[in-house]
Design a protein that fits this description.
The chain has about 200 residues and is mainly alpha-helical. The protein contains 10 helices and no strands. Helix 5 crosses helix 6. The radius of gyration is 19 Å and the shape is globular. The N and C termini lie far apart (about 60 Å).
């Protein structure tokens, strides 16, 4: 009797999560460059080939958390109501993320999130791989805006603004402030930045 597809998918996701959690724990404890793929496989109690079936690169063990947000800006633009300007929709979406303390906005003071961002920002290979994700996001957003150079420029500007805002928010929290304390500044900065985009 074969295993139901839903159960198989859930098991696969649990395995994927367990591998990633083991990897991130090791990376936060020792540093990205001091942890080998063999160390991760041993900690997750799997073989190295199994690990690579779930994560093609060592960097993906960390950055898979960003894939939940891949194409998000493009979805916001495509799913907006017809009467809403695309930049206004993106602005509102970013503000809503600040209100939720979504880690992608940089406005999250949970110690693990702060440490995770520090790991990503301070490891050149992770920053490089993250840049690849950002290029994919930019292409998707440009497609949602339309065609031609203006759509590509607008997409690049929006994503640059979001990246700068998130990094500034994270830095304030990494310097010891709370998300609650930073929130009013973060919202004002977002209002200013998106205002300039318009």
């Amino acid at each position: 009797m074969s295993e139901p597809t839903g159960l198989r998918a859930r098991k696969k996701q649990r395995t994927r999560d367990a591998i990633a959690d083991a990897a991130v724990s090791l990376f936060l404890e020792r540093g990205f460059d001091r942890v080998s793929v063999n160390d991760i496989a041993a900690a997750a109690d799997i073989s190295k080939p199994t690990l690579f079936r779930y994560f093609p690169t060592k960097e993906d063990l960390v950055l898979h958390r960003f894939t939940d947000h891949l194409g998000e800006a493009a979805r916001v633009v495509r799913d907006r109501t017809p009467d809403l300007d695309p930049v206004t929709a993106l602005h509102r979406h970013f503000l809503a993320g600040l209100d939720r303390h979504d880690p992608v906005t940089g406005l999250n003071d949970h110690p693990e999130v702060v440490a995770f961002h520090r790991l990503v920002f301070s490891t050149p290979s992770l920053a490089g791989r993250l840049a690849q994700y950002q290029i994919e996001d930019e292409e998707a957003l440009a497609d949602a805006f339309g065609e031609g150079i203006r759509a590509r420029l607008r997409a690049a500007q929006v994503l640059a603004v979001q990246r700068v805002l998130a990094r500034a928010n994270w830095q304030k929290i990494a310097d010891g402030r709370t998300a609650r304390d930073v929130h009013p500044e973060a919202a004002a900065d977002a209002d200013h930045a998106f205002g300039q985009l318009r």
